[in-house]
C-alpha cells in the first residue's frame, strides 16, 4: 500500500482557511510562476515548485476530504480535482440528491473506514488526506505516514487549523524536504510512530 499523506497549503501561523472558510492568498503560489502545473495552463508555478509538486500529484491515487469541503466545492462538479482518480468523502450523510452514481466519489462514515477505502482504491499509490478537521482526526488516529505543507507567507491570526482540533503533542521527524518556491516554502515530514 502507498503512503497516507496529510497535505494542504497553510499560513505561517498554521491555518488552512480564515475564520470565514476562505483560503485568502494560500493558493497564490499556484499562479506565481511561468511553468504550467497541469494541462489547463491555469496553474503556473516556479520550476522549483513544479519539480516538487508535479511528481507528488502524479503519485496520488485517492484523496480523503470531509463533507464540508465537498459541499463548499459543490463536489467539484463530479470531477476529482487535480486529475486524481478517486475522492473519498467522510460523512454521516448520503450522497447529495441527484448525485451521479458513476462519479468517482465514495461516501464513507468515519475516518478509519475512509482511509481503508482510499487505500483500496489507490493500491500502491499515495492516499492524500486534506488537512483540517478530518485530516486532524486521521492524524490523531495514527493513520498518517507523512505531513506535507506548502507554507505561504501570510499570517491569518485565526481560522481553520491545519491539524484541526488535535490538541495533543505529536513529534514529527526532522523535515526531509525543504524547498523554496515563489511565495511558498514546501515542507515534508515523516511521522514518528509511537512505540507499541
From TrEMBL:
SUPFAM superfamilies: Dihydrofolate reductase-like (SSF53597). Residues 4-170 form the Bacterial bifunctional deaminase-reductase C-terminal domain. GO terms for biological process: riboflavin biosynthetic process. One of its GO terms (molecular function) is 5-amino-6-(5-phosphoribosylamino)uracil reductase activity. Pfam families: RibD_C (PF01872). This is Bacterial bifunctional deaminase-reductase C-terminal domain-containing protein. The lineage of its organism: Bacteria, Bacillati, Actinomycetota, Actinomycetes, Micromonosporales.
